[in-house]
Amino acid sequence: MEKAPQNIQLDRPRLLLTDGGPLRRWFFYAVLLLLGGLGGWGCFITAFALPVTPALLGGVGFFCCAFTLWRQLDTRKRWWSVSLLGWVAWLFALLFLFDHALHGAVRTLNAMLDLYSNKLSYDLPTLTLPYTVGVPRPSPQEECDAFFALLFYPFFWAMSRMLAHYKNVLGPFALTGTLLVFPLSFSILPAGWAFGTLLLFWCVLLFTTSIITGRQGLLGRHNRYRVPGIASARPAALLVLPLLALCMLAVYRFAPPETYARPLLVEDLRYMVENGFGAAAFIRGGQGNSNRQVQLNTMGSRSYTGETILQVKFDWQQPSDSGLFHSKEYLKSFVGSVYTGQSWERLPDESRREADALPLQAQNQVARYHQEMFLDTVDRQGGYTLSLRNLGANPRCVYIPYGLSSPADALAGQGVQLVEDGYAKSASFLTGAGSYTLDAVTLPMGVSYFSRIAATAVFNQYGVSLTPSTGSANSGTLYSGVYSNNQTAGASTGLWNQLVNGLSAQAEAGGDQWPEDLYTVPADALASLQPQQQVLAQAVEAYNQFVYRHYTQIPPELEEFLSRFRTAYALHPYTRDTDYRYKDGAVYFAGKIQEVFQSYFTYSLSPPTPAAGQDFARFFLEESHEGYCVHFATAAVLLLRSAGYPARYAEGYVVPSRLSGWVDVPDYNSHAWVEVYCGGMGWIPVEVTPASADNPAVYYDAALPGGNAQERAPTPQPAETRPTLPPPDPDYQPQQVPTATPGYQPGAAPTPAAPPAAGGSHGAGPSAGPGKPAWPVPLALLGLLAAAAGSLLLFRWARIRRRQKALSQRDRDQAALGAYAFLLRLYSWEALCGRRAPPPTHWKALAEKARFSKAMLTPEELAQLTGDIARLQQKLRVQLPLPRKALCWACGLI
């Protein structure tokens, strides 16, 4: 027998595995794709509360997943022809469902913009649905179903292409993660089941990466071997899925989040994710810097720096007989119409459309009275031009006075547009309004709508001027003692009595507390007004009805509590037998509220914070009795509404108006106040916040008085002297807002949308939570950025270091095989530089020699491959586009 040679070299070991078959591979990848699609799209749809049909989208998603994955796993050479048929069918579906899909896309984008607006307190622009006139409109659910059904085929095609064809797990991770980034970057949290499903998909990708990536076969690296590819893509590998799900449920069940002991940095990061992570944390405004909503549940301590926010200049047309009237002006940037318990919101969409259809623009109501129904002895004389420079406030906000008289075309020319019936904003979303000039008139003294109409009619008919009377009213004849005739009353007695009788008849039909603002001019008396006055009167009466339908509503759960509070603190609306008949009832009642606040409540910039889910106003009125202007204004609006008076929450800046030249307005002049409605004047500001040395905006000239301001502030009563609220009455029936005429019934309360997740424009600055310091948040963000940059550099260094070690090893054959693999990777990137030639033939020849030859490669042959690496890297550095060059650099290829 011949002796075996001693220099036999064994080839590298091989592993032959039976293929699992196309059905098993299809099942493996189908489960992964459906899990990723359910998690990703579930997060997107639930976060933005989009109206979709789960069963329909589930069926469409399964079909798209099954078809596209079948095509990716098909090993025939002409698989692309059938895949092309799928795209052609998708294009036909797009043409057939184009209108529905387009409307669904607009609805989806508007829903995203609406939630982004809530988070940023910015009034973002929205798109108009492109409906065809005369064509029946489909339901929002049908439109969104069509839009998402068309998105599923490209989504699953890309996912299956990356997973099953290219064996790439980073692509599906990024694709599904993008769907989560859209809501989470603005702190909009998806449903828990959707986020859990997406997290489960990512975990499965992580655990199965080693058997998904790479080609089929046995790969060796550093004397270690692994089996990648579809040969191990078997259904048995999916057993990791239920195990991971059980682990997640066990952790959540036996270690609930509220029991975690987190470090301060981790707690701050968690709070940011829920309440202010992403873009919402960087575009927060302070008091007066919102034109979208006011988040009350994030109110915390407040502090001021004295920084100049606005610069204003008042140019008066004529001097005032009393400097008191020209001492300060309220400039509003936002009006809160709907109270949700945790926020002040704008009117719902349906109410907004109703307001836009009204013939009266409420922001100009005072000015129109001056121009068309001016009462020389009632309205205060004085018009002015307001010039404003925005130095540090939200540029999207426009700060307008209450007597705005600038016409709409003049406002549009300066990039200013009116919002609903309350305030204004900049028409430019990107640049905002840095400076503008507005014309305005001063506010009138108290006068009811009936008094203005009656005085105007008598003056038009007989030339008789009426003046307010300071004497007490005669309870026998309604309003006969309210005004006295300066000249001769005989000629106007008939018309006056006719108007009074009409008012009395409407009041008797509406009840004892029927508001005078809902007075309707009788048809025969309407002729006493001039044509333009008739148009204005009809517009005002329509708006009066709108006001009492929408601005007297409070949450039903607060009705009994507010009634008991008014009883305990003796807050009773004035009646016709009260000596204050010549005053406006809402102003009188607001004054009584302010007296209660000054006596029993404390102004504080660091008030207690209500518990999660607790009503903001009730906590302030019943428990804390401490707060600043936001607290007092919110509570006063609800108390006014509970008594039947229309009221709104307003915020902005209070500025001095009697000083000449440009005046600096510091940040501590930001303020919140109450708007009450009087049909004879319009919306007027009312102050309810107690005076305090920390609140200069309350004083008559928006500045602290001389001397010791702290001594001038009223001292609240101690807690033990406060009235005690009576217990709830089980038989209590909430008082309904009185009707105006026999045919008029107040509309149902507008249903506010569910309050968004916490985080908004108010609080103690950009801190992570109420009462927490402001520095952990920016430090945490800087830490995240530094960690991301460090991880990227470490990843690049590790890749380069490993490649250098592989190319410099003593076994030149192994070094040559590593160089060949790296050359092929660089060659794939070379295609992005333009046309490329086929790879040089000597690459493959040297690799085959290193792999199969008994003789080791020479140093010159190895140097030939490494030289080609250097030349190809230099080409990529010069010719690659910048974004791809950055990605190539981050991967350590160049």
- How many E-type strands? 20
Question: What are the low-pLDDT stretches, counting only 5+ consecutive residues below 50?
Answer: 8-12, 14-18, 215-232, 280-285, 467-489, 577-583, 707-713, 734-775
Structural class call reads alpha+beta
Q: Main beta sheet: strand number and arrangement?
A: 4 strands, antiparallel
Query: What is the radius of gyration computed over CA atoms, rounded to a whole number of angstroms?
Result: 37 Å
Termini Cα gap = 57 Å
Beta-strand percent range: 5-15%
Give the count of helical stretches.
Answer: 27
With strands numbered from the N-terminus, the spatial order across the biggest sheet is 12-8-4-18
- For the residues shown, what is the average pLDDT? 75
Shape: elongated
Helix content: 40-55%
Structural overview:
The chain has 894 residues and is an alpha+beta fold. The chain is built from 27 helices and 20 strands. The strands form seven sheets. It has a four-stranded antiparallel β-sheet with strand order 12-8-4-18. A four-stranded antiparallel β-sheet has the order 5-17-19-20, covered by helices on one side. Strands 3-7-6 form a three-stranded antiparallel β-sheet, with no helix packed on it. Helix 1 runs antiparallel to helix 7 (192-207) and helix 19 (585-600) crosses helix 21 (629-642). The protein is elongated and about 125 Å long. The relative contact order is 0.09. Residues 8-12, 14-18, 215-232, 280-285, 467-489, 577-583, 707-713 and 734-775 have low confidence and may be disordered.
